[in-house]
Amino acid sequence: MLVEDLSGMERAVALYASDMPTDYRLQGPVDTTLIGWISQGAARLGREETRRRASYLLGHRKLWLRDMTTPEIDRRHNERFPSARRLKLAESMASTSYFWAPVAPAARDIPAVIDGPCPKCDDAGKLWARWVIDAEAEWYEEGYGPCWVCQPEDGAA
Ligand SMILES: [Zn+2]
Prior knowledge:
The chain is of the alpha+beta class.
């Protein structure tokens, strides 16, 4: 599996699962050891699991940024990544790796997935709202639309 085919979040997840020491520091301008650890962690988890965990990590981030995480969602997140310090390091190393191993265009879009009941729609997957059809014409319609928190955004796989 090529490191280039892994998105940033997937690289972070792979590094977390690898042998990388939690007090690791970059070795020189091009750190091939780091690239090796990304491959190691991704191979260890497998392609599917790496992607799944990265999607959950993105989902958790999306909620966390809006102060919307629930105890259940936090619990699952902490089970998956027990060390916040290691996760922080893995994420920072993953972004550094872009310099030597750019993310392939096809690898960029992974969906954010909420691991647990959705705090916005309670897993209905839809929300009652007023939707703008044409703002200039002041044309609005009320109805159900996909929940913006737990449903994949347009364009994402
Ligand atoms: Zn929802």
